[in-house]
Specification:
Number of strands: 12
Strand content: 15-25%
Distance between the termini: 67 Å
Strand order of the largest sheet: 1-2-3-7-4-6-5
Largest sheet: 7 strands, mixed
Structural class: alpha+beta
Shape: globular
Order of helices and strands: HEEEEHHEEHHHHHHEHEEHHEEHHHHHEH
CATH topology of the largest domain: Cytochrome Bc1 Complex, Chain A, domain 1
Helix content: 40-55%
CATH class of the largest domain: Alpha Beta
CATH superfamily of the largest domain: Metalloenzyme, LuxS/M16 peptidase-like
CATH architecture of the largest domain: 2-Layer Sandwich
């Protein structure tokens, strides 16, 4: 997809960069294309060009040139997400994401968004478990402008009481619209972590309690910004039609003078090994039919067991050929689909940094019991735990994993690429890991699949939430059942 030119690095630029963590060599062949095959059967290998630098103030910079389309994708990833927001301030990380669009030292309220729009670009921001990110896709000849704009709000966000009050209202409205007044609102993505985890940081309401959102003060916001929105807690990623040496010059010019945070502190987010199955029942007055969700704690990210779990996810729940889809949907007809995954639906299997769940979710009719569904799930899991997986099925799962990776990296906006590079730099100090993902997956053996399923798909490592329709739905169902008789 990407055509590359070998770039020479300027000696003066290298000298001005305080700490060069690692530089990944630029490929001389198109990125993401297969290298010359030594043997016909050898699969293609992902080859993403990426230069990696660290400025004196701690800002990590990743640059991935791609000259096929005259656009640049700029992402800034801050190492603060809703998993590590302050106690008694649930929803604070998400609230602050909104604050970052309220103006800065040289750009007034809404001017950042207008700057992107007037240049024909697109932008967004999001809050996840372990980061908050902001990104723009813009014409490549405006790259310097947007590096300046991102640096402007990193060093001088306009934090006022009016802006805070305004965004508290916006966030509270989001909670009401997306969670409180929606059938299945927050189910299961908000509910499962709270039920499955024991550490408050992993188990609180990430969207935020309305009272705690209101309790955020201007002093809270100023302290939060000073502590977490600093260069030594951030990654700048630039992917696209750019000159790496030129981008590094701009990064030094605009981000280099910003002081680092002296108060970076992060909580312990570790979870103990789960040894007892947890079951919770939830009533949803807006839900038209019952639902069932389940979650298992997954292996630590980056381990061989984690790679096996990634394939187990594909084998069991992803796609029409997955085992749970075949049983629960095609054979038993419980529902039209089964959804779920690792870090589902808030991200992917790579962009988090701490304990995580592999979860599943199904809407089903009232005539089907949760225990019947769970019995079928258990049978599918037991088969994976006790019988060696067929090599052909494992090979299909690996092909599916490779295909998904290429889809993410090769998206037109390059956001998937920016997200992986930013996550690997932020969490692992190693954006080059993107080029090793295929090897991690290819190394998984049938024995690893079985061993990982035995340990991590134990019933004692599982949390189950049964969602039942509330009184309003039950009354409506009763009324509809009586209506035909009344007409006779």
């Amino acid at each position: 997809m990407i055509s590359l030119e070998r770039m020479k690095r300027c000696a003066a630029l290298a000298a001005s960069t305080a700490a060069l963590a690692v530089t990944l060599p630029l490929a001389t062949t198109p990125a993401f294309a297969a290298p010359k095959k030594e043997a016909a059967a050898k699969p293609a290998a992902l080859s993403v060009p990426a230069e990696y630098h660290t400025l004196a103030n701690g800002l990590k910079v990743v640059i991935s040139p791609d000259h096929t389309v005259p656009t640049a994708s700029v992402g800034v990833y801050y190492g603060i997400g809703f998993r590590i927001e302050p106690r008694d301030r649930t929803g604070f990380a998400h609230l602050f994401e909104h604050m970052m669009f309220q103006g800065s030292a040289n750009l007034g309220k809404a001017q950042f968004i207008n700057l992107v729009n007037t240049n024909g670009g697109q932008l967004n921001g999001s809050t996840r478990f372990d980061y908050t990110n902001y990104y723009e896709v813009v014409p490549s000849n405006t790259t310097e402008t947007f590096l300046w704009a991102e640096a402007d709000r990193m060093k001088g966000l306009d934090i006022t009481q009016d802006n805070l009050t305004n965004q508290q209202g916006v966030v509270k409205n989001e909670v009401k619209v997306n969670v409180l007044n929606q059938p299945y609102g927050g189910f299961p993505w908000l509910d499962l972590p709270q039920a499955a985890n024991t550490n408050w940081y992993n188990a609180h309401n990430f969207y935020g309690d309305l009272k705690e959102i209101d309790a955020a003060t201007l002093t809270d916001v100023q302290a939060f910004f000073k502590q977490f929105y600093a260069p030594n807690n951030a990654v700048l990623v630039v992917a696209g039609d750019v000159d790496p040496a030129q981008v590094m010059g701009w990064a030094e010019k605009y981000f280099g003078p910003i002081p680092k945070s002296a108060g970076l502190k992060f909580p312990d987010v570790s979870e103990p090994r789960q040894t007892v199955e947890k079951r919770v029942e939830k009533t949803d007055p807006l839900a038209p039919q019952p639902a069932l969700a389940w979650g298992y704690h997954v292996p630590p990210k980056g381990t061989p067991e984690w790679a096996a779990m990634r394939l187990i996810d594909l084998l069991l729940i992803q796609g029409a050929d997955s085992r749970l889809t075949k049983v629960l949907v095609n054979q038993k007809g419980y529902a039209g689909s089964v959804e779920g995954g690792i870090n589902w639906p808030l991200g992917n299997a790579y962009n988090y940094n701490g304990p995580m769940l592999w979860s599943g979710f199904i809407l089903h009719g009232p005539e089907v019991s949760d225990d019947a569904i769970l019995a079928d799930i258990d049978a599918v899991v037991k088969d994976l735990q006790t019988r060696p997986i067929d090599p052909a099925e494992l090979a299909r799962a690996k092909t599916k994993a490779r295909s998904e990776l290429y889809d993410v990296v090769g998206s037109a906006s390059r956001f998937g690429l920016v997200d992986l590079l930013g996550s690997f730099a932020l969490f692992d100090n190693d954006p080059g890991r993107i080029n090793r993902l295929e090897k991690e997956i290819d190394a998984v053996t049938p024995a690893m699949i079985r061993k990982t399923a035995q340990e991590y798909l134990r019933s004692t490592n599982r949390t189950i939430i049964s969602l039942k329709p509330g009184a309003a739905q039950e009354a409506a169902a009763a009324a509809s059942a009586v209506a035909p008789a009344a007409k006779k």
